[in-house]
Structure formats: C-alpha cells, structure tokens
Design a protein that fits this description.
CATH superfamily of the largest domain in chain A: Alkylmercury lyase
Distance between the termini of chain B: 21 Å
CATH class of the largest domain in chain A: Alpha Beta
Strand order of the largest sheet of chain A: 5-4-6-7-8
Strand content of chain B: 5-15%
Helix content of chain B: 40-55%
Oligomer: heterodimer
Distance between the termini of chain A: 31 Å
Number of domains of chain A: 2
Strand content of chain A: 15-25%
Radius of gyration of chain B: 15 Å
Number of helices of chain A: 5
Number of helices of chain B: 3
Number of strands of chain A: 9
Order of helices and strands of chain A: HHHEEEEEHEEEHE
Largest sheet of chain A: 5 strands, antiparallel
Largest interface: A-B, 53 and 44 residues
CATH topology of the largest domain in chain A: Bactericidal permeability-increasing protein, domain 1
Radius of gyration of chain A: 18 Å
Largest sheet of chain B: none
CATH architecture of the largest domain in chain A: Super Roll
Number of strands of chain B: 2
Structural class of chain A: alpha+beta
Chain lengths: 163, 72
C-alpha cells in the first residue's frame, strides 16, 4: 500500500460521491484502480483510521465522507442538479461550501420537527423559511435558526454518529 | 450537530436527553466555518489537517472558547 494510492482512493470516493451522490463500493474502487477488493478494503480501513472517512461498523460501506452522508438523513442538499444527503446541520452547509455552488437545503428542526428550507446563493445564506404553512410568521419571530454542537472538539471522534 | 428553531428547543432537547448544553452557533457562523473547513475537501491535495490548522480555522471564525480547544 502506498500513501499516494491511499489519497487517490480518498479522492476517488469523493469524486464518485459528487458525481453520483453515493460513495463507491469497495468493488467499484478496486476495479477503478485495478487492484484486488482486499487491497481496496485495506485502503478504506486505513482512511477510516485516519478519520478521512467513516465506515458503517463492521463493514466496508462508507457512511460518511464529510460533509457527505452515504445514507439518507434529515439534511437534504439540492445542488448542481443532484440531491445529496449531509451528515448533520453543519454538513448541510458544508456541501455547498465543498462544491462551491448554490444550493437549496431541506432540513428538519430537531425537537420541534418542523421542516425548513434554506438557500445558499452567490456564497451567502440567502434565505431561510419554515416550509410548514402554519409558520407563516416564522422569519419575523425566528429570524435565525441555530446549530447546536453537543460535544467539544476534543470529543468529536469519541462517537462520530452522535457528534 | 443538530438544527434548532430557538434556544428554548435546545434546552428542551438537552433536558430530554439528559445532556449538557454544548455550544450554539448561528447559521451564518456555521456557514463561515463551513467555507474554511470544507472549501478544499474535494481537492486531490487534501490529506487532512493538523491540530494547528484546525485551531487557526476556529480562530478565524471567532471560536476561541475552551469548547474549541484542540490541544487536549
């Protein structure tokens, strides 16, 4: 295993996610680099050990390649004609930041379970509004949705799904 | 990191889950953080970052409390 190949695999995972909205399987990565599935799997594990990706426990399936999620979540990002899933409220903004593009984000407020739509346009947060018709006065009464970071940075990698 | 309508909802969530409140950022703060954190994530040259680089990003967006301390 070479370090150069390791980072090429990382880049391939991200390129595949950007192009298809899904992470590549180990077999797809093995075929792309003309290596064995065992070698590709070892590279996935090495990337996970370095916190470059997060694998579903006991599998070689990419669950997170931050800010992208390999599984559906409450944070849906429409950008460049595709729909991506983000891992969390931070990552829903991370996707347009990574893509350097405009985006429309559909999310759900935690605890109140109200749907909300956000827009990134020309590098700025252009709009945020509740999509629930009962909340027509949402912007005047709640002009600023909030993101809660439950754990300090020192504990982010203790439990990545919770974080 | 979860999205909330207000601090009151964060308080409710924290109490219900028996968790201490963490740090609360506005969307604009998180957007500024996102641009620095993820802006080069798709580059073939991105190989992760050092704690010093993380600390610099936090500093640039004004996240300087102990919560954001990378030295521990």
């Amino acid at each position: 295993m070479t370090t150069a190949l390791l980072w090429q695999v990382r880049h391939f995972i991200y390129s595949h996610l950007v192009d298809t909205t899904l992470p590549p399987s180990v077999d797809e990565t093995a075929r792309h680099f003309n290596i064995s599935a065992e070698e590709a799997g070892a590279l996935y594990k090495e990337l996970a050990d370095r916190h470059a990706i997060f694998l579903e426990p006991e599998t070689l399936t990419v669950r997170m390649a931050w800010p992208f999620s390999g599984a559906p979540t409450d944070f849906k990002v429409h950008a460049d004609g595709k729909t991506y899933f983000a891992n969390c409220a931070w990552d829903m903004l991370g996707i347009p930041a990574a893509l350097h593009t405009d985006a429309v984000i559909e999310a759900v407020f935690t605890e109140s379970n109200e749907p909300v739509q956000l827009e990134i346009k020309n590098g700025q947060i252009a709009n945020s509004q509740s999509t629930d018709s009962q909340f027509t006065n949402y912007q005047s009464t709640n002009p600023q949705p909030l993101v809660h970071f439950p754990l300090p940075f020192a504990r982010w990698y203790d439990d990545l799904v919770f974080t | 990191m979860l999205l909330f309508q207000s601090e009151e909802w964060i308080e409710t969530w924290s109490l219900r889950n028996h968790l201490e409140r963490g740090e609360i950022l506005t969307l604009h703060q998180v957007w500024e953080l996102s641009k620095l954190w993820y802006g080069n994530r798709l580059s073939v040259d991105y190989h992760g970052r050092s704690k010093e680089q993380v600390a610099e990003i936090f500093k640039q967006v004004g996240l300087t409390s102990k919560f954001w301390d990378v030295s521990q």
